[in-house]
Every structure is written in C-alpha cells, then in structure tokens.
Amino acid sequence: MKVRVFSSEQEATAACAAHIATEVRAKPELVLGLPSGRSPLNVYRELVALHARGALDLARATSFNLDEFLGLTPDDSNSFRAYMERHLFQHVNLLPERIHFLDGSAPEAESECARYDSAVVKAGGLDVVMLGIGPNGHIAFNEPGDALVATCHRALLSRETRQGLAAFFGNDATRVPLAALTMGMAALMQARQVLLLAFGASKAAAVTAMLHGPISPQCPASFLQLHRDVVVWLDGAAASGLEQR
Ligand SMILES: O=P(O)(O)OC[C@H]1O[C@](O)(CO)[C@@H](O)[C@@H]1O
C-alpha cells in the first residue's frame, strides 16, 4: 500500500480530489465507489470546486455509494443519499441515472443487496473506490467480527460505529440506526484502485493495524494489504502510530 502523509487534512483531501480528477480525465466513464461520513467531506468540497472551475467533468462517470442506513428512505435528511445530494450530487454533473444507491427502505434487504451487487457487476466493477476507516477498522459497514461477508449485506452496527456517527444525528448515538446495508468485501477488494482516507488521532490505531497488523476479520481494513493498488491519504495525527514503529 502506498502511504501519503500530509501536514493537514486540507492538503490531503485537496491532493486526493486532484487525483480523482486526473483519473476521470484519463477515463471519463470512470466507475466510482463513494463513502459517506466525515472523512470524505473535504474531498467532495474540492471536487465541487474543481467542477465549478471546469476542471472536472463527471457527465460520463458512474457512482455507487458504499452503504446506507437500514430503514431510512432516500429523502430522509439523515440518509447517506441525502448527505451525498447535499455535499456532491447537487453541485456536479453526474447524471441521475448513473448515480447508484442502496435503498435502506427496500422491503426486502436480501433482494435489494442482490440487486446492488448485480448493478456493480453490470457496470464492470468499481474503477476507483474511496474509503474511510472506522476506529475499529471497519470499511464501508464491514464491521470487525469472526468472519467477513463477501457480498452486499445487512450489517449490525457496533456501538463504537454508532457513537462515531452521532455527530450526524444531533450528537445522539441512540438516534443512529442499529443496522445498515453495505457493499461486501468482494466489491471493495475487486475495485481497481482504493483510496483510503484517515484523519485525526482517533484513527491512528486503526491505520497502524490496517497497514501492519495481521490480516484478520477483526480489522476488515487489514485485507487491503492483499490489494495491488491502494493509496492511503493521512494527516500527521492519523499517521502517528506509524512513526513509533
Ligand atoms: O469518516 P468517518 O466519519 O470517521 O467514518 C469512517 C467510516 O465509517 C462510515 O461512517 C461507515 O461506512 C463511513 O461512512 C466512513 O467511511
């Protein structure tokens, strides 16, 4: 894995957005996998700015979001769909028919997950997937456990993960849904390139475990050690565990 450490989150996210814009210029039909949460927010802001200055054209690109809360409708203001509309989709020229989302309110989670896995395959897989990482090492909502799931699935969210998402629910972790639908490990591992973002001291232990720990379902991100093309974008605080090695 390539590790890029920047002096600030702003520098890291600007460089990551510029990298994505370069990838889109090289392949305008790029299929992107996109995360929610706090880490990608500045990347989305930068992508919007690049688009506004004519340096990013997403008219032929496709996006697949990685996960969605179970039970929330797409128009619920707390859904990841609404988050993506606010922070990216309203401001760039991705075509609505090329924006893909798991529907957390679908009546049958299993068939919704099967539909989504098929849609990713039909699109030719993900070219570039951007990921955050949970302090417990989760990627998308693939939570640590005795085993990981390859396919898109319904995931129970850990207490720690719900705590980390509380800021999006008025700082009240009890309002964070108990479960989500998420892409499985296979779609993430089969992406041609993975861009993983981590900022702040709360991510330092997870970053060290991802890069140097055993490859274990107890740290889902550690499986990225097996991937050929991963770029990890860090600030100094998230990289602090690496310096002590
Ligand atoms: O970027 P954050 O808010 O720290 O969250 C880490 C990860 O956990 C999630 O909230 C779960 O997928 C992601 O959205 C994010 O990639």
TrEMBL record:
InterPro entries: Glc/Gal-6P_isomerase (IPR006148), Glucosamine6P_isomerase (IPR004547), Glucosamine6P_isomerase_CS (IPR018321), NagB/RpiA_transferase-like (IPR037171). One of its GO terms (biological process) is carbohydrate metabolic process. Residues 10-233 form the Glucosamine/galactosamine-6-phosphate isomerase domain. One of its GO terms (cellular component) is cytoplasm. Its EC number is 3.5.99.6. It is an enzyme of class 3 (hydrolase). It comes from the Bacteria. The keyword tRNA processing does not apply. Gene3D superfamilies: 3.40.50.1360. Keywords: Hydrolase. GO terms for molecular function: glucosamine-6-phosphate deaminase activity; identical protein binding. This is Glucosamine-6-phosphate deaminase. The lineage of its organism: Bacteria, Pseudomonadati, Myxococcota, Myxococcia, Myxococcales.
